[in-house]
Design brief:
Trna Endonuclease, Chain: A, domain 1, elongated, 652 residues, alpha+beta, five-stranded mixed beta sheet, Serine Threonine Protein Phosphatase 5, Tetratricopeptide repeat, disordered C terminus
Length: 652
């Protein structure tokens, strides 16, 4: 006969007992035991109405009778960290069959700082203060109410704080005397914090003992200083208030209150304190750079790096700047450029390698702000001073992209080829094909596009469209490659003074000089369209748009000409997706105006539905993840912000 083991009986008993131990108005529901979550509790008020307050429970039962075993057990660090990440708070409930008592503690209260090095588990301990009774249940209710308020964005300055001392004296100063000194100094910080004694207020908790200062909001945001015992007793009260203020700033940053966090630092002259608290500064910096104190934050970084070598702090700053580098805020752009230039000057004499890396960072900034000439110059200097760039595929790719944008297509293609020799990265293939195409090597470009599309089964509309158009011009003009005489082609493409028959002939001559002359294709498209050659007009407008990707008029005319039975529907779909990729909603807006003007509102409604379906995936937000490279053990700079499976863009 199958026997039911004692532990299973004990687990069921603990579930039953826990449901009886909580207030009658609360509802306990069993949950699947994934990750140790045994149940869910929903809180109802005295009017028997749901409050919306919910928490999860992990039950840990024991039949042992030793106090130490009852009031503690080992829990894996991975599980603790998992609980802390959950949106719904987790209550750990220890049931003693011997005492018929529950001890409870929020998972967020567990400080993993005290876990042993390389340990996989940590001791979770309880005291008499953790016994689940009516008073404790009221505490749980208050905790959840505060938690909802914090997450709902109700925090404002000054912040209420409740200070508790866990030791009789701090740095030799009696706690009763220290709190008096804190009260006398707190006026200096009146716009940041105020002392309260009402446990019902939306307050931050401050715990101070001989070694630590712990500040936070309900264990969901905050930090702990572990060096209180090293503080100067003569300045203890004021220094504690400064550190409490910095901790509150960090807590607010963790909760998403960037500007409030920055106001605490910059409106109370805490910059000097922050400069010596490097660990806090490193964690707070990304938030400060997202605030209205952007310029001031960069100045602190420069000061810290001037006073002491702190390349890690620079790295954090540079990574944050990469995330915000596309800002159109001119003040932020100027502050960023100043910071990066100052970094270059810092290393000009002392470290050739860091000087080269700093030039690289400035070059990337210039790339992001469309100053490709300056970007290329910085990248070339970077390679001269940091030789490791000679072996980095991504470096050649970025330099190739900058050269492409300034019209150095042949050099760009050579650098993309070098990139492929180092990395064999498939996403570089279409960029290489693009540079070959603009270098006039049409057949080689088409072959490379086909190779990429066949190898990856790519859905990137722009590369498909270029491959199709290249195949057409190679066949139509019986050409494999061409020396592009861009200047002469543009001169010939000016047909404003010619009759239609002579104009078309001259435009063909212009294309014989340069098959990628956008003006020639646009004017030829106009002639074809006027004479009813809709298919040819669509192709000519498309060629113009692919050469001048920013030309919304060309994209719209190409799309409008393609919405018929003459042009394959696949081409129409590719045009819509590629035009949207390069010009976004502005392209769609102009396209809809043209369609409504020619076909009417009812037809527009039907067409707009089709286009919305085509763009369903393209409109989904994609993270524009920048690149932050750190030297690995093999001496290569690898990107630590993305993984190999991240999706790649379809253009430059």
């Amino acid at each position: 006969m199958t026997k039911r083991i004692k532990q299973h009986q004990l687990e069921d008993l603990s579930r039953y007992k826990f449901a009886l131990s909580i207030p009658q108005k609360w509802v306990f529901r069993d949950k699947d035991k994934d990750y140790g979550i045994d149940g869910e509790v929903e809180i109802f008020n005295s009017d028997e109405k749901a409050t919306g307050l919910v928490f999860w429970v992990q039950l840990k039962a024991t039949s042992l009778d030793q106090t130490r075993a009852i009031r503690g057990f080992d829990l894996s660090l991975e599980t603790i960290k998992y609980y802390k990440r959950l949106e719904i708070p987790v209550l750990i409930a220890r049931y003693s069959e011997h005492e018929d008592t529950f001890y409870v503690k929020w998972a967020g209260e567990i400080d993993t700082f005290y876990a042993k090095d390389d340990a996989k588990t940590m001791r979770v301990s309880f005291s008499e203060a953790d016994i689940l009774d009516e008073e404790k249940a009221d505490e749980l209710n208050k905790y959840l109410t505060k938690l909802r308020a914090v997450k709902s964005g109700f925090i404002k300055l000054p912040i209420d704080v409740q200070i508790s001392f866990e030791s009789k004296s701090i740095c030799g100063v009696a706690s009763s005397i220290l709190i008096s000194k804190i009260r006398s100094k707190i006026n200096k910080f009146s716009s940041v914090l105020r002392l309260v004694y009402d446990d019902n207020s939306l307050s931050a908790d401050v715990f101070i003992d001989e070694n630590t200062l712990k500040v936070g909001f309900l264990d969901i945001a905050g930090c702990t200083f572990h060096s209180v015992d090293l503080m100067d007793p003569s300045k203890l009260a004021e220094d504690l208030l400064k550190d409490i203020s910095l901790a509150l700033s960090l807590s607010l940053s963790q909760l998403g209150y960037s500007d409030l966090a920055a106001r605490i630092v910059f409106s109370h002259d805490l910059q000097h304190r922050l400069k010596v608290k490097h660990e806090i500064f490193e964690r707070l910096l990304p938030c400060l750079l997202k605030s209205n104190f952007f310029k001031e934050s960069l100045e602190i970084v420069s000061d810290v790096c001037d006073e002491a070598e702190n390349n890690f702090l620079e790295m954090i700053t540079n990574s944050t700047l990469l995330f915000i580098r596309n800002t159109v805020d001119k003040v932020k752009q100027e502050a960023t450029e100043t910071f990066l230039k100052k970094t270059i000057e810092r290393y000009k004499e002392k470290s050739p390698s860091l000087y080269g890396i700093s030039q690289y960072n400035l070059g990337n900034f210039y790339r992001s702000t469309d100053r490709c000439n300056q970007a290329a110059r910085c990248l070339l200097i970077a390679r001269r001073y940091e030789p490791k760039y000679y072996n980095q595929g991504y470096f050649y790719r970025e330099l190739a992209g900058s050269l492409f944008e300034i019209g150095k297509f042949t050099f760009s293609s050579k650098l993309y080829k070098k990139t492929l020799e180092i990395d064999s990265s498939e996403d570089v293939l279409p960029l290489y094909a693009d540079s070959l195409m603009f270098s006039g090597k049409y057949q080689e470009a088409h072959k490379t596009f086909k190779n990429y599309l066949n190898k990856t089964k790519s859905q990137h509309a722009g590369w498909h469209l270029k491959s199709i158009c290249l195949a057409s011009i190679i066949e139509e003009h019986d050409i494999k490659s061409q020396y592009r005489n861009i200047k002469k082609a543009v001169e010939l493409a000016d047909i404003s003074y010619l009759s239609p028959d002579k104009a078309e002939k001259q435009l063909e001559e212009a294309l014989e000089k340069d098959l990628l002359c956008a003006l020639a294709w646009f004017n030829l498209a106009h002639i074809k369209n006027s004479s009813g050659q809709i298919h040819d007009a669509a192709f000519c407008y498309t060629m113009c748009a692919l050469v001048q990707t920013w030309d919304i008029e060309a994209w719209v005319k190409a799309t409008a000409c393609s919405f018929n039975n003459v042009v394959p529907i696949e081409i129409f779909a590719l045009l819509v997706r590629t035009g949207y990729f390069f010009n976004g909603e502005r392209y769609i807006e102009v396209l809809y105006e043209v369609i409504e003007g020619s076909l009417g509102e009812e037809a527009l409604s039907q067409i707009a539905h089709v286009i919305d379906q085509l763009l369903l995936d393209d409109r989904k937000s994609k993270n524009n993840i920048p690149e932050l490279r750190i030297q690995n053990e093999e001496g290569k700079f690898e990107n630590v912000l993305v993984n190999e499976n991240d999706s790649k863009g379809q253009g430059r």
